[in-house]
Amino acid sequence: MEFFIDPSRCIGCQACVHACAHCESHRGVSMIHLDFVDRVSSPQTTPTVCMHCEDPTCARVCPTDAIKQTGEGIVQSALQSRCIGCANCVLACPFGVPRYLATIEQMMKCDMCYDRTSVGLKPMCATVCPSGALYYGTREEVAQHRREKPLGTFVFGRQVVKTKVHLMVGAATEELALDVVGFMGGAED
């Protein structure tokens, strides 16, 4: 089973956000949020979940080794007993996923409902998404019902990031370059 995100299908209903908060291990806090693509000109939203990088930058920059990755590749929230609230993980994540919650003094992020997925259940957000923007299933099921293809390779400047969660993109796309400097009209190499 794999996790797929199709932002073009997101209708902004926030069912995923509310379902995530009800996952038993999240203590009433949603680990997923919706981002507005271009709030000025469009109501389009996109769900933001942890992409579960193969080599998670958030874990590499943690000075207390509080962020762990399971054998299945799920990057978990910081261990509360080790998290010192430095927010290195928040700043390092190329996808902008981790959030530091001062009220509980811990970094929290989507853990793909590991308490559920580790026993064969779907993540809460994928069980309630009415449009299929969030989907948890096999690659074969996705291929049968979608024109887009799953992508798990992203380029941030010179850094190539491979992820466990897949973004649905056009059939011709092999990797997605997300260069912030390019968006800002910055200097070239």
Can you describe what's shown?
- The chain has helices spanning 15-21, 57-60, 88-92, 114-117, 124-128, 139-145, 180-183, and strands spanning 2-5, 33-36, 45-48, 99-101, 106-108, 134-137, 149-156, 159-169, 176-177.
- It is α/β, with parallel strands linked by helices and 189 residues long.
- Strands 6-1-8-7-9 form a five-stranded mixed β-sheet. A two-stranded antiparallel ribbon has the order 2-3.
- β4 (99-101) and β5 form a beta hairpin.
- Mean pLDDT is 87; it is low at 183-189.
Mean of the pLDDT scores?
Answer: 87
Strand content: 15-25%
Largest sheet: 5 strands, mixed
- Assembly form of the protein: single chain
Instruction: Figure out the total of helices.
Output: 7
Overall shape: globular
User: What would you say the CATH architecture is?
Assistant: 2-Layer Sandwich
Distance between the termini: 40 Å
CATH topological fold name: Alpha-Beta Plaits
Order of helices and strands: EHEEHHEEHHEHEEEH
Number of domains: 1
